[in-house]
Amino acid sequence: xxxxxxxxxxxxxxxxxxxxxxxxxxxxxxxxxxxxxxxxxxxxxxxxxxxxxxxxxxxxxxxxxxxxxxxxxxxxxxxxxxxxxxxxxxxxxxxxxxxxxxxxxxxxxxxxxxxxxxxxxxxxxxxxxxxxxxxxxxxxxxxxxxxxxxxxxxxxxxxxxxxxxxxxxxxxxxxxxxxxxxxxxxxxxxxxxxxxxxxxxxxxxxxxxxxxxxxxxxxxxxxxxxxxxxxxxxxxxxxxxxxxxxxxxxxxxxxxxxxxxxxxxxxxxxxxxxxxxxxxxxxxxxxxxxxxxxxxxxxxxxxxxxxxxxxxxxxxxxxxxxxxxxxxxxxxxxxxxxxxxxxxxxxxxxxxxxxxxxxxxxxxxxxxxxxxxxxxxxxxxxxxxxxxxxxxxxxxxxxxxxxxxxxxxxxxxxxxxxxxxxxxxxxxxxxxxxxxxxxxxxxxxxxxxxxxxxxxxxxxxxxxxxxxxxxxxxxxxxxxxxxxxxxxxxxxxxxxxxxxxxxxxxxxxxxxxxxxxxxxxxxxxxxxxxxxxxxxxxxxxxxxxxxxxxxxxxxxxxxxxxxxxxxxxxxxxxxxxxxxxx
Length: 582
Description:
HAMP_dom, Sig_transdc_His_kin_internal, Bact_2-comp_sensor_kinase, phosphoprotein, Heat Shock Protein 90, transmembrane, 17 helices
């Protein structure tokens, strides 16, 4: 299998074709997902509407029942027999007492039998110390019940919460201004009947419901299976889950759909719940077909990608690899193939191009190479007389002072310098040798300008040492800095030579603090980069041209104003694959 750099994969035709196919198929898949979610949302909303309608109807029925009980309770409080018993119990005889009590018991029994929600009715008659119950008859005054009902009645509300039951109450007062009522009626609602009525609200087998009074002080579940869910719902800390008409809550790893209806007059809420999978059950068939469609789409994408790779991408990679080898200088890379399609035509034309290129290389590429060598020889032959005179002057000064140690050091450096620029050998040298020569030149100049020019020459990074470069590309730039800028300065001259390296290029930076204008920098750049300028062929333009010819487009010299406010020259070397891991 052929390989191309991962960073350029998104630029390949293969990637674009697969992307185009995805652009076509993904909207269809997204439409299917949208339709599924839309159907689920509608089903969920429909379930909520039906549930809330049922819950509202349930609360309306319960409100009518409670209102009827309150009317009956009021009638009893206005009954003359109850008032007679409460006020004249000690004045009437036993027969009349019995008749009055039997009358009250008959009234209570009749009311109890007319509503399935009533568990029992009590009349607590404080004035005679008796309690009358529709189920238990007449017995001693139930002070505990009386006190509990009185305490809850002071809080307010139509329904009183006593223990685990809901109650209604009413009081009858005398005419003497007492705070305590003469008699108190208590209607206790039947929890079992309320559970049965709640169970009728459950439409689905796995659904459930529960009744909540006030701020969750009283909660009644429709069945025992709903009790754990009821407890978790009541203990939920999320305010939205507690008060919203519709909510989704996860309980024991299972998501439930809750609907809630509220009666402000009764201060009651009724909540129904349904597992989310029950809501989604009608969509299961659609969900199955959606997965089949998604799987088929993925399979189609794979088939399309494989066929595109085999018939388009792989031949293109073969062609790209052949072009890269050709760019590296290999011209004996004929593509052997048996294809008769468009790629076969391209392969044939590529092979013909190699043959023509082989015939043209002698008259074109070799001519440029010969010109490059000639320019290098010409540069080597130009030993700057000015530098030579200065070198003899330095040697004369050292001889007069009798500094034999520095004379020896200077002559060794001078010998290394002239040996490097005059030797005949390879036109390309290791960058470490080129930098060593430039450093030698700088050390010679330091002997001359040590008092007014300060030099910082960084060490060459090890990752750049084995890069091969044309000879004499660094020292002439340093020489140019001395000749045109630093020699004219009477003090505080600065020369800085640094190095930078990244994945794709190596940089040698020479910077001084001489006085130069932006217009001069721009003119220098034009002279160096303009191949038609013949008067600069042995200077910076020669260096720029040789680097560009060796390393290709993007390499060469770059000029700008540096941090020292002088000229900053950057030697940019674009690295090939062979130098990436040096």
